[in-house]
Write a structure and sequence with these properties.
Elements lengths: L4 E4 L4 E4 L7 E6 L10 H19 L3 E6 L6 H10 L3 H18 L15 H14 L2 E3 L3 E4 L22 E2 L11 E7 L16 E3 L1 H12 L4 E7 L3 H16 L4 E7 L2 E3 L2 E2 L10 H6 L4 H9 L7 E3 L1 H18 L13 H18 L5 H13 L5 H15 L14 H15 L3 H13 L2 E6 L2 E6 L1
Parallel strand pairs: 3-4, 3-10, 7-8, 10-11, 12-14
Antiparallel strand pairs: 1-2, 5-6, 6-8, 8-9, 12-13, 15-16
Bound molecules: zinc ion.
Length: 458
């Protein structure tokens, strides 16, 4: 297998990837908190995990991937209380929407997508072990991890612990400037409504950080190859995952930490107050195909900051369609059957070049440059260009062979269409209208013609 180099946040340098088991990769991707639509910044990180998986598979590795679904934490509980619905129905709705967005972005669903609420017993057992070995302690409002008992605490985030105070923090999210003992388990308060679990140390609910440690160890192993996430997760989330996991097992938790950069919108941070939190629905509303967004993301190295502008993503859509229209055509294979030595040489040279870039810390922008170089090569017959680019698309995932008319209607939309037809047949027009809005919200247009309902991507 050719060498793959990845930037490891742990040592803050590019390293050759050496797997725990030869030919295999265990990878944990910090997944979404399902309390709202995921935004395009979140999706940049999920595209990174997807490219990483595809690169390993392209190189012949077997990948065992996990992406968790955070369906119980401060944010989800708060939102379900505000909306006046149960935690389960809130998280179920956004989980479905999340997976349909992944599909639209051609992100291959990881092999396992466990939900936090299904692993509570595993979290409790980790906390019990920490209470036993003295790295955790009980206080009036919950169980906390004692960061003073963790010798390497903060290595990942390059923390300076001189300023740390002996304080604790119940909130899952806090600032790097003030590292403190963090919450493993929060005792029940009335703000949690009916969300609570029995535990030997007192009823309550888990903190966010312990959820990922438990799901990673349960679904993969105590030590895994790779853990991914956005750079905003380095502290406190990933720092705390390392501390508590290693406090339990005494083993290294993860060998390679891969973190993706931020997205800014017109040079500004995405924020509610600026009204610039864009989702895939926002993009579809402006006639930007989710795959054009994927192409836009691949144009910049994953560790760099990426500035989103409508002009730039529009340009990406034009470039993507240009490659796609070339690749999706049918070419006469007959004329190119005469294979000269120079063609064979060219083919292997291009393949090598592409692999070298993609294996060099996932340099997708250089890999895309190879695609354009191939398109411009006047000495290579079209049929061979097509074959090469389609091979590269196994990594890029740009659906280059998909013809416009073949655009697939996702499964969940098909179900909604059926439900709407039933409502219409039963003359329940209020319900059918409601479903139509839901379908439109997910980026599809609904038209009722003489031959029935016609659905088209917007
Ligand atoms: Zn996580």
């Amino acid at each position: 297998m050719p060498p793959i180099f990845l930037h490891n946040t742990l040592g803050n340098k590019k390293e050759e990837f050496i797997p725990i088991k030869q030919g295999e990769v265990s990878m944990y991707n910090c997944g979404p908190t399902v309390y709202d639509f995921a935004h395009i910044g979140n999706f940049r990180t999920f595209i990174l995990s997807d490219i990483l998986r595809r690169v390993f598979e392209y190189n012949g590795y077997k990948v065992d991937g996990v992406m968790n679904i955070t369906d119980v934490d401060d944010k989800t509980i708060k939102r379900s209380v505000v909306e006046g619905i149960s935690l389960k129905s809130l998280t179920h709705k956004y989980e479905e929407l999340f997976f349909s967005d992944l599909e639209a972005l051609n992100i291959i669903k990881p092999q396992k997508t466990p939900k936090a609420t299904e692993s509570i017993a595993d979290m409790i057992s980790l906390i019990e072990k920490m209470l036993e070995n003295g790295t955790a302690y009980k206080s009036s409002d919950g169980v906390y991890f004692d960061i003073a008992k963790s010798p390497g605490y903060g290595t990942l985030a390059h923390l300076n612990l001189e300023n740390s105070t002996k304080e604790r923090v119940a909130n899952d999210e806090y600032d790097k400037t003030n590292p403190r003992d963090f919450s493993l388990w929060k005792f029940y308060t009335k703000d949690d409504e009916n969300v609570c679990y029995e535990a030997p140390f007192g009823k309550g609910r888990p903190g966010w950080h312990i959820e990922c440690s438990a799901m990673s160890m349960k679904n993969l192993a105590e030590t895994i190859d790779i853990h991914t996430g956005g750079i905003d997760l380095i502290f406190p989330h990933h720092t705390n995952e390392i501390a508590q996991s290693e406090a339990v097992t005494g083993k290294t938790f993860v060998h390679y930490w891969i973190h993706g950069g931020f997205i800014t919108i017109d040079g500004k941070k995405m924020s509610k107050s600026l009204g610039n939190i864009f989702t895939l629905q926002t993009l579809k509303g402006k006639k930007i195909d989710p795959i054009a967004y994927r192409y836009f993301v691949l144009g910049t190295h994953y560790r760099s900051m990426l500035n989103f502008t409508w002009e730039a993503v529009g340009g990406a859509q034009v470039a993507w369609k240009k490659i796609k229209s070339f690749v999706s055509k049918t070419y006469d294979q007959q004329e190119s059957r005469l294979v000269s030595k120079s063609i064979i040489y060219k083919l292997s040279e291009y393949k090598e070049k592409f692999s070298k870039h993609i294996n060099n810390d996932l340099d997708t922008s250089q890999s895309l440059a190879v695609v354009f170089e191939i398109l411009k090569d006047s000495k290579l017959p079209d049929h061979y260009k097509q074959e090469l680019i389609l091979d590269f698309d196994k990594v890029l995932g740009l659906k280059l062979d998909e013809k416009e008319e073949e655009k697939i209607i996702p499964e969940n939309i098909k179900i909604l269409i059926k439900e709407r037809d039933t409502a219409r047949n039963g003359k329940n027009f209020a319900k059918s209208d409601e479903i139509r809005k839901e379908i439109e919200l997910q980026g599809f247009e609904v038209k009722d013609g003489p031959e029935g309902t016609v659905i088209t991507p917007r």
